[in-house]
Amino acid sequence: MTSAFFKNLSLFALTAAIGFSSCNQGASKSASTDSTATSKETVKIGVLHSLSGTMAISEVSLKDAVQMAVDEINAKGGVLGKQIEPVIVDPASDWDLFAEKAKELLIDKKVSAVFGCWTSVSRKSVLPVFEQNNGLLFYPVQYEGEECSNSVIYTGATPNQQLIPAAEYLMSEKGGGYKKFYLLGTDYVFPRTANKILKAYLLSKGIPKENIIEEYTPFHHQDYQTIISKIKRFAADGKACILSTINGDSNVPFYKEFANQGLSAATCPIMAFSVAEDELRSMDTEFLVGHLAAWNYFQSNDLPENKKFVDDFKAFCAKKGLPGGDKRVTDDPICWAYTGVYLWAKAAEKAGSFDVSKVRNALYSLEFNSPDGLVKMDARNHHLAKPVVIGEIKPDGQFDILWKSEGLVDPQPWSPLTSPDKDCDWVNHNGTYAKK
Protein backbone atom coordinates (compact mmCIF):
# COMPACT_ATOMS: atom_id res chain seq x y z
CA MET A 1 0.00 0.00 0.00
CA THR A 2 2.86 2.36 0.78
CA SER A 3 4.34 2.04 -2.70
CA ALA A 4 0.93 2.63 -4.24
CA PHE A 5 0.50 5.71 -2.12
CA PHE A 6 3.81 7.18 -3.24
CA LYS A 7 3.08 6.30 -6.84
CA ASN A 8 -0.16 8.25 -6.59
CA LEU A 9 1.61 11.05 -4.77
CA SER A 10 4.31 11.33 -7.42
CA LEU A 11 1.75 11.37 -10.21
CA PHE A 12 -0.30 13.97 -8.37
CA ALA A 13 2.75 16.18 -7.79
CA LEU A 14 3.78 15.89 -11.47
CA THR A 15 0.36 16.79 -12.83
CA ALA A 16 -0.02 19.54 -10.24
CA ALA A 17 3.32 20.98 -11.30
CA ILE A 18 2.22 20.97 -14.94
CA GLY A 19 -0.99 22.72 -13.98
CA PHE A 20 0.91 25.23 -11.89
CA SER A 21 3.34 25.96 -14.70
CA SER A 22 0.42 27.04 -16.86
CA CYS A 23 -1.08 29.11 -14.05
CA ASN A 24 2.27 30.67 -13.22
CA GLN A 25 2.88 31.68 -16.81
CA GLY A 26 -0.46 33.46 -16.75
CA ALA A 27 0.34 35.09 -13.44
CA SER A 28 3.77 36.19 -14.67
CA LYS A 29 2.24 37.68 -17.78
CA SER A 30 -0.24 39.61 -15.66
CA ALA A 31 2.48 40.73 -13.28
CA SER A 32 4.59 42.06 -16.15
CA THR A 33 1.76 44.34 -17.23
CA ASP A 34 2.08 47.96 -16.11
CA SER A 35 0.26 48.08 -12.77
CA THR A 36 -1.16 51.54 -13.53
CA ALA A 37 -2.79 50.13 -16.65
CA THR A 38 -4.52 47.31 -14.80
CA SER A 39 -5.30 49.02 -11.49
CA LYS A 40 -8.48 50.60 -12.88
CA GLU A 41 -9.80 47.23 -14.05
CA THR A 42 -8.54 44.64 -11.56
CA VAL A 43 -7.72 44.14 -7.91
CA LYS A 44 -4.87 41.76 -7.11
CA ILE A 45 -4.91 39.05 -4.47
CA GLY A 46 -2.07 36.70 -3.59
CA VAL A 47 -2.27 32.90 -3.50
CA LEU A 48 0.45 31.49 -1.23
CA HIS A 49 0.12 27.71 -1.28
CA SER A 50 2.74 25.02 -1.92
CA LEU A 51 2.31 23.72 -5.46
CA SER A 52 5.38 21.49 -5.24
CA GLY A 53 7.19 19.62 -2.48
CA THR A 54 5.81 17.52 0.36
CA MET A 55 2.77 19.70 1.08
CA ALA A 56 1.56 19.97 -2.53
CA ILE A 57 -0.78 16.99 -2.07
CA SER A 58 -2.86 19.08 0.33
CA GLU A 59 -2.20 22.68 -0.71
CA VAL A 60 -2.81 22.42 -4.45
CA SER A 61 -6.50 21.84 -3.73
CA LEU A 62 -6.64 25.05 -1.71
CA LYS A 63 -5.22 26.99 -4.63
CA ASP A 64 -7.93 25.40 -6.77
CA ALA A 65 -10.65 26.39 -4.29
CA VAL A 66 -9.43 29.99 -4.22
CA GLN A 67 -9.40 30.11 -8.02
CA MET A 68 -12.95 28.72 -8.18
CA ALA A 69 -14.21 31.40 -5.78
CA VAL A 70 -12.43 34.08 -7.82
CA ASP A 71 -14.00 32.82 -11.06
CA GLU A 72 -17.46 32.80 -9.48
CA ILE A 73 -17.12 36.32 -8.10
CA ASN A 74 -15.69 37.66 -11.35
CA ALA A 75 -18.58 36.10 -13.30
CA LYS A 76 -20.96 38.12 -11.13
CA GLY A 77 -19.19 41.41 -11.78
CA GLY A 78 -16.21 41.23 -9.48
CA VAL A 79 -15.70 43.36 -6.37
CA LEU A 80 -16.45 47.08 -6.34
CA GLY A 81 -16.63 46.93 -10.13
CA LYS A 82 -13.20 45.33 -10.49
CA GLN A 83 -12.24 41.85 -11.59
CA ILE A 84 -10.13 39.88 -9.12
CA GLU A 85 -6.66 39.04 -10.47
CA PRO A 86 -4.99 36.20 -8.53
CA VAL A 87 -1.19 36.32 -8.35
CA ILE A 88 -0.10 32.72 -7.76
CA VAL A 89 3.29 31.89 -6.27
CA ASP A 90 4.83 28.60 -5.16
CA PRO A 91 6.63 28.53 -1.78
CA ALA A 92 7.42 24.87 -2.56
CA SER A 93 6.88 23.48 0.97
CA ASP A 94 9.91 25.52 2.10
CA TRP A 95 9.13 27.47 5.27
CA ASP A 96 11.76 30.18 4.62
CA LEU A 97 10.57 30.56 1.05
CA PHE A 98 7.05 31.25 2.35
CA ALA A 99 8.35 34.47 3.91
CA GLU A 100 10.15 35.50 0.72
CA LYS A 101 7.07 34.85 -1.40
CA ALA A 102 4.90 36.79 1.07
CA LYS A 103 7.22 39.79 0.68
CA GLU A 104 6.99 39.46 -3.08
CA LEU A 105 3.20 39.48 -2.97
CA LEU A 106 2.86 42.40 -0.56
CA ILE A 107 5.74 44.65 -1.63
CA ASP A 108 6.34 43.89 -5.31
CA LYS A 109 2.91 42.77 -6.49
CA LYS A 110 1.01 45.02 -4.06
CA VAL A 111 -1.83 42.58 -3.54
CA SER A 112 -4.84 43.62 -1.45
CA ALA A 113 -5.01 40.34 0.49
CA VAL A 114 -3.29 36.96 0.53
CA PHE A 115 -4.87 33.51 0.78
CA GLY A 116 -2.50 30.79 1.87
CA CYS A 117 -0.31 28.66 4.16
CA TRP A 118 -1.10 25.23 5.62
CA THR A 119 1.32 24.23 8.36
CA SER A 120 1.68 26.36 11.47
CA VAL A 121 5.40 26.73 10.79
CA SER A 122 4.65 28.28 7.39
CA ARG A 123 2.13 30.64 9.00
CA LYS A 124 4.58 31.67 11.70
CA SER A 125 7.25 32.18 9.04
CA VAL A 126 5.16 34.76 7.17
CA LEU A 127 3.58 36.40 10.22
CA PRO A 128 6.28 39.11 10.69
CA VAL A 129 6.07 39.96 6.99
CA PHE A 130 2.35 40.62 7.19
CA GLU A 131 2.57 42.52 10.47
CA GLN A 132 5.43 44.74 9.27
CA ASN A 133 3.81 45.52 5.90
CA ASN A 134 0.16 45.94 6.93
CA GLY A 135 -0.86 42.85 5.00
CA LEU A 136 -3.88 40.63 5.49
CA LEU A 137 -3.55 36.82 5.36
CA PHE A 138 -6.57 34.51 5.18
CA TYR A 139 -5.45 31.23 6.79
CA PRO A 140 -7.81 28.29 6.08
CA VAL A 141 -6.49 25.38 8.18
CA GLN A 142 -7.28 24.24 11.73
CA TYR A 143 -4.47 25.11 14.09
CA GLU A 144 -3.24 24.99 17.67
CA GLY A 145 -4.43 28.45 18.75
CA GLU A 146 -2.23 30.36 21.21
CA GLU A 147 -1.96 33.11 18.61
CA CYS A 148 -4.01 36.10 17.53
CA SER A 149 -2.60 38.53 14.97
CA ASN A 150 -4.38 41.56 13.60
CA SER A 151 -2.82 40.64 10.24
CA VAL A 152 -4.39 37.17 9.99
CA ILE A 153 -8.00 36.10 9.42
CA TYR A 154 -8.17 32.54 10.77
CA THR A 155 -10.97 30.68 8.97
CA GLY A 156 -9.77 27.27 10.25
CA ALA A 157 -10.66 25.84 13.66
CA THR A 158 -9.38 26.90 17.06
CA PRO A 159 -8.72 24.16 19.67
CA ASN A 160 -12.19 24.54 21.22
CA GLN A 161 -13.68 23.99 17.73
CA GLN A 162 -11.88 20.71 17.08
CA LEU A 163 -9.54 19.28 19.74
CA ILE A 164 -11.68 19.73 22.84
CA PRO A 165 -15.00 18.55 21.33
CA ALA A 166 -13.24 15.43 20.00
CA ALA A 167 -11.84 14.50 23.42
CA GLU A 168 -15.17 15.29 25.08
CA TYR A 169 -16.99 13.07 22.58
CA LEU A 170 -14.68 10.10 23.24
CA MET A 171 -15.22 10.45 26.98
CA SER A 172 -19.01 10.58 26.55
CA GLU A 173 -21.28 7.52 26.65
CA LYS A 174 -22.13 7.96 22.97
CA GLY A 175 -18.46 8.19 22.06
CA GLY A 176 -17.50 5.06 23.98
CA GLY A 177 -16.66 6.37 27.45
CA TYR A 178 -12.89 6.13 26.93
CA LYS A 179 -10.63 6.65 29.93
CA LYS A 180 -7.13 6.23 28.48
CA PHE A 181 -5.61 8.50 25.83
CA TYR A 182 -2.51 8.05 23.69
CA LEU A 183 -1.51 11.44 22.22
CA LEU A 184 0.57 10.70 19.12
CA GLY A 185 1.80 13.37 16.72
CA THR A 186 4.38 14.61 14.25
CA ASP A 187 7.12 16.55 15.98
CA TYR A 188 6.43 20.21 15.22
CA VAL A 189 4.49 23.17 16.60
CA PHE A 190 0.87 22.13 15.92
CA PRO A 191 0.98 18.66 17.55
CA ARG A 192 3.11 19.85 20.46
CA THR A 193 0.82 22.76 21.31
CA ALA A 194 -2.37 20.85 20.54
CA ASN A 195 -1.33 18.06 22.90
CA LYS A 196 -0.41 20.53 25.63
CA ILE A 197 -4.00 21.79 25.47
CA LEU A 198 -5.50 18.31 25.19
CA LYS A 199 -3.48 17.03 28.16
CA ALA A 200 -4.57 19.98 30.30
CA TYR A 201 -8.19 19.35 29.34
CA LEU A 202 -8.06 15.62 30.07
CA LEU A 203 -6.47 16.21 33.47
CA SER A 204 -9.12 18.83 34.28
CA LYS A 205 -11.78 16.18 33.58
CA GLY A 206 -10.28 13.73 36.05
CA ILE A 207 -8.31 11.51 33.69
CA PRO A 208 -5.33 10.21 35.73
CA LYS A 209 -1.91 11.35 34.54
CA GLU A 210 -0.80 7.73 34.07
CA ASN A 211 -3.69 7.26 31.61
CA ILE A 212 -2.26 9.87 29.24
CA ILE A 213 0.75 9.00 27.04
CA GLU A 214 2.36 11.60 24.76
CA GLU A 215 4.74 10.70 21.91
CA TYR A 216 6.10 12.26 18.71
CA THR A 217 7.71 11.10 15.49
CA PRO A 218 9.56 13.14 12.82
CA PHE A 219 8.03 14.16 9.51
CA HIS A 220 7.89 11.24 7.01
CA HIS A 221 8.32 8.66 9.80
CA GLN A 222 7.66 5.18 8.38
CA ASP A 223 8.37 2.55 11.05
CA TYR A 224 5.56 2.40 13.63
CA GLN A 225 6.11 -1.18 14.81
CA THR A 226 7.55 -0.26 18.22
CA ILE A 227 5.02 2.51 18.87
CA ILE A 228 2.05 0.31 17.95
CA SER A 229 3.38 -2.38 20.28
CA LYS A 230 3.35 0.17 23.09
CA ILE A 231 -0.18 1.26 22.14
CA LYS A 232 -1.31 -2.38 22.12
CA ARG A 233 -0.06 -2.86 25.68
CA PHE A 234 -1.60 0.46 26.71
CA ALA A 235 -4.99 -0.58 25.28
CA ALA A 236 -4.93 -4.19 26.55
CA ASP A 237 -7.34 -3.56 29.42
CA GLY A 238 -9.83 -1.67 27.22
CA LYS A 239 -11.25 1.87 27.14
CA ALA A 240 -8.19 3.29 25.35
CA CYS A 241 -8.13 5.54 22.29
CA ILE A 242 -5.66 7.58 20.24
CA LEU A 243 -5.71 11.32 19.60
CA SER A 244 -3.63 11.63 16.44
CA THR A 245 -1.90 14.74 15.16
CA ILE A 246 0.23 12.74 12.70
CA ASN A 247 0.63 14.67 9.46
CA GLY A 248 1.27 13.72 5.86
CA ASP A 249 2.47 10.40 4.46
CA SER A 250 3.31 8.97 7.92
CA ASN A 251 -0.37 8.17 8.28
CA VAL A 252 -0.04 5.37 5.73
CA PRO A 253 2.37 3.11 7.67
CA PHE A 254 0.78 4.15 10.97
CA TYR A 255 -2.73 2.90 10.11
CA LYS A 256 -1.34 -0.16 8.32
CA GLU A 257 0.81 -1.25 11.27
CA PHE A 258 -2.09 -0.57 13.61
CA ALA A 259 -4.16 -3.16 11.73
CA ASN A 260 -1.22 -5.56 11.32
CA GLN A 261 -0.91 -5.87 15.09
CA GLY A 262 -4.59 -6.72 15.47
CA LEU A 263 -5.87 -3.38 16.67
CA SER A 264 -9.07 -1.90 15.24
CA ALA A 265 -11.49 0.99 15.60
CA ALA A 266 -13.66 -1.26 17.75
CA THR A 267 -10.89 -1.97 20.27
CA CYS A 268 -8.91 1.31 20.17
CA PRO A 269 -10.29 4.04 17.89
CA ILE A 270 -8.04 6.67 16.34
CA MET A 271 -9.39 10.23 16.40
CA ALA A 272 -7.45 12.15 13.72
CA PHE A 273 -7.08 15.92 13.49
CA SER A 274 -5.17 16.07 10.18
CA VAL A 275 -6.80 13.40 7.99
CA ALA A 276 -9.58 14.56 5.66
CA GLU A 277 -11.23 13.55 2.39
CA ASP A 278 -8.55 15.10 0.17
CA GLU A 279 -5.79 13.02 1.80
CA LEU A 280 -7.96 9.88 1.80
CA ARG A 281 -8.41 9.97 -1.97
CA SER A 282 -4.70 9.14 -2.35
CA MET A 283 -4.72 6.41 0.30
CA ASP A 284 -6.00 2.89 0.56
CA THR A 285 -8.86 3.18 3.07
CA GLU A 286 -8.81 -0.53 3.95
CA PHE A 287 -6.94 0.15 7.19
CA LEU A 288 -8.78 3.37 8.03
CA VAL A 289 -12.44 2.31 7.97
CA GLY A 290 -14.20 2.90 11.27
CA HIS A 291 -11.66 5.32 12.66
CA LEU A 292 -12.65 8.89 13.41
CA ALA A 293 -11.83 12.50 12.57
CA ALA A 294 -12.95 15.83 13.98
CA TRP A 295 -13.44 18.83 11.71
CA ASN A 296 -15.94 21.62 11.07
CA TYR A 297 -16.97 20.43 7.62
CA PHE A 298 -17.37 17.12 5.80
CA GLN A 299 -18.25 16.64 2.13
CA SER A 300 -21.10 14.39 3.29
CA ASN A 301 -22.90 17.41 4.81
CA ASP A 302 -26.37 17.20 3.23
CA LEU A 303 -27.10 20.95 3.12
CA PRO A 304 -28.29 22.07 -0.34
CA GLU A 305 -25.57 24.74 -0.50
CA ASN A 306 -22.93 22.08 0.17
CA LYS A 307 -24.28 19.72 -2.48
CA LYS A 308 -24.01 22.59 -4.97
CA PHE A 309 -20.49 23.40 -3.76
CA VAL A 310 -19.36 19.78 -4.18
CA ASP A 311 -20.87 19.54 -7.67
CA ASP A 312 -19.42 22.91 -8.66
CA PHE A 313 -15.93 21.97 -7.44
CA LYS A 314 -15.96 18.71 -9.38
CA ALA A 315 -17.18 20.53 -12.50
CA PHE A 316 -14.57 23.27 -12.04
CA CYS A 317 -11.72 20.74 -11.76
CA ALA A 318 -12.95 18.86 -14.82
CA LYS A 319 -13.38 22.03 -16.89
CA LYS A 320 -9.90 23.29 -15.98
CA GLY A 321 -8.33 19.89 -16.69
CA LEU A 322 -7.02 19.66 -13.12
CA PRO A 323 -5.66 16.38 -11.71
CA GLY A 324 -8.54 14.09 -10.72
CA GLY A 325 -11.11 16.04 -12.71
CA ASP A 326 -14.68 15.30 -11.65
CA LYS A 327 -13.42 12.67 -9.19
CA ARG A 328 -12.08 15.38 -6.89
CA VAL A 329 -13.44 15.74 -3.37
CA THR A 330 -13.97 18.63 -1.00
CA ASP A 331 -12.87 18.77 2.62
CA ASP A 332 -12.56 21.13 5.58
CA PRO A 333 -9.54 23.24 4.46
CA ILE A 334 -10.95 23.43 0.92
CA CYS A 335 -14.24 24.74 2.30
CA TRP A 336 -12.53 27.47 4.34
CA ALA A 337 -10.11 28.48 1.59
CA TYR A 338 -13.14 29.03 -0.65
CA THR A 339 -15.08 30.80 2.10
CA GLY A 340 -12.16 33.12 2.85
CA VAL A 341 -12.28 34.67 -0.62
CA TYR A 342 -15.99 35.40 -0.24
CA LEU A 343 -15.50 36.90 3.22
CA TRP A 344 -12.83 39.24 1.86
CA ALA A 345 -14.98 40.22 -1.13
CA LYS A 346 -18.03 40.82 1.04
CA ALA A 347 -16.01 42.90 3.51
CA ALA A 348 -14.51 45.00 0.70
CA GLU A 349 -18.00 45.67 -0.67
CA LYS A 350 -19.20 46.60 2.82
CA ALA A 351 -16.21 48.92 3.35
CA GLY A 352 -16.42 50.38 -0.15
CA SER A 353 -12.65 49.99 -0.30
CA PHE A 354 -9.77 47.52 -0.68
CA ASP A 355 -7.79 49.29 2.05
CA VAL A 356 -6.59 46.67 4.53
CA SER A 357 -7.68 48.56 7.65
CA LYS A 358 -11.13 49.25 6.27
CA VAL A 359 -11.61 45.68 5.05
CA ARG A 360 -10.46 44.36 8.42
CA ASN A 361 -13.00 46.50 10.28
CA ALA A 362 -15.76 45.40 7.89
CA LEU A 363 -15.01 41.73 8.64
CA TYR A 364 -16.00 41.98 12.31
CA SER A 365 -19.36 40.23 12.90
CA LEU A 366 -19.70 39.58 9.15
CA GLU A 367 -21.93 36.63 8.29
CA PHE A 368 -21.67 34.39 5.23
CA ASN A 369 -23.70 31.42 4.02
CA SER A 370 -20.81 29.03 3.38
CA PRO A 371 -20.97 25.43 2.05
CA ASP A 372 -21.09 24.52 5.75
CA GLY A 373 -24.09 26.78 6.36
CA LEU A 374 -24.14 30.18 8.03
CA VAL A 375 -20.85 31.17 9.69
CA LYS A 376 -19.92 34.40 11.43
CA MET A 377 -16.70 36.30 11.98
CA ASP A 378 -16.15 37.00 15.64
CA ALA A 379 -16.67 40.62 16.64
CA ARG A 380 -13.21 40.78 18.24
CA ASN A 381 -10.71 38.07 17.45
CA HIS A 382 -10.32 37.38 13.70
CA HIS A 383 -11.76 33.84 13.88
CA LEU A 384 -14.96 32.22 12.63
CA ALA A 385 -17.85 30.91 14.68
CA LYS A 386 -18.93 27.65 13.05
CA PRO A 387 -20.21 24.13 13.75
CA VAL A 388 -18.08 21.18 14.89
CA VAL A 389 -18.55 17.70 13.42
CA ILE A 390 -17.12 14.26 14.19
CA GLY A 391 -17.18 11.59 11.52
CA GLU A 392 -16.29 7.95 10.92
CA ILE A 393 -14.24 6.94 7.89
CA LYS A 394 -16.15 4.87 5.32
CA PRO A 395 -14.72 2.53 2.65
CA ASP A 396 -15.27 5.15 -0.08
CA GLY A 397 -13.09 7.71 1.72
CA GLN A 398 -16.04 9.78 2.89
CA PHE A 399 -17.25 10.31 6.45
CA ASP A 400 -20.39 9.18 8.20
CA ILE A 401 -21.28 12.09 10.52
CA LEU A 402 -21.69 10.75 14.07
CA TRP A 403 -22.01 13.99 16.00
CA LYS A 404 -22.55 17.69 15.31
CA SER A 405 -22.57 20.63 17.67
CA GLU A 406 -25.80 22.44 18.38
CA GLY A 407 -25.43 25.67 16.45
CA LEU A 408 -22.19 27.58 15.97
CA VAL A 409 -19.26 27.23 18.34
CA ASP A 410 -17.61 30.56 19.17
CA PRO A 411 -13.82 30.54 18.68
CA GLN A 412 -11.36 30.67 21.59
CA PRO A 413 -7.88 31.34 20.15
CA TRP A 414 -6.33 31.21 23.62
CA SER A 415 -7.12 28.16 25.72
CA PRO A 416 -8.49 29.11 29.16
CA LEU A 417 -6.61 26.07 30.52
CA THR A 418 -3.14 26.92 29.24
CA SER A 419 -3.33 30.69 28.67
CA PRO A 420 -6.06 32.05 30.98
CA ASP A 421 -4.54 35.55 31.09
CA LYS A 422 -4.45 36.13 27.33
CA ASP A 423 -6.99 37.54 24.90
CA CYS A 424 -7.06 39.24 21.50
CA ASP A 425 -9.53 42.09 21.69
CA TRP A 426 -8.74 43.95 18.48
CA VAL A 427 -11.82 46.18 18.51
CA ASN A 428 -12.97 49.03 20.71
CA HIS A 429 -16.48 48.87 22.11
CA ASN A 430 -17.70 51.32 19.44
CA GLY A 431 -16.59 48.88 16.73
CA THR A 432 -13.51 50.80 15.57
CA TYR A 433 -10.15 49.13 15.11
CA ALA A 434 -8.10 49.18 18.31
CA LYS A 435 -4.55 48.34 17.16
CA LYS A 436 -2.35 49.06 14.19
Automatic annotation (TrEMBL):
<feature type="signal peptide">
    <location>
        <begin position="1"/>
        <end position="26"/>
    </location>
</feature>
<dbReference type="InterPro" id="IPR017777">
    <property type="entry name" value="ABC_urea-bd_UrtA"/>
</dbReference>
<protein>
    <submittedName>
        <fullName>Amino acid/amide ABC transporter substrate-binding protein, HAAT family</fullName>
    </submittedName>
</protein>
<dbReference type="InterPro" id="IPR000709">
    <property type="entry name" value="Leu_Ile_Val-bd"/>
</dbReference>
<dbReference type="InterPro" id="IPR028082">
    <property type="entry name" value="Peripla_BP_I"/>
</dbReference>
<dbReference type="Pfam" id="PF13433">
    <property type="entry name" value="Peripla_BP_5"/>
</dbReference>
<dbReference type="GO" id="GO:0006865">
    <property type="term" value="P:amino acid transport"/>
</dbReference>
<keyword id="KW-0732">Signal</keyword>
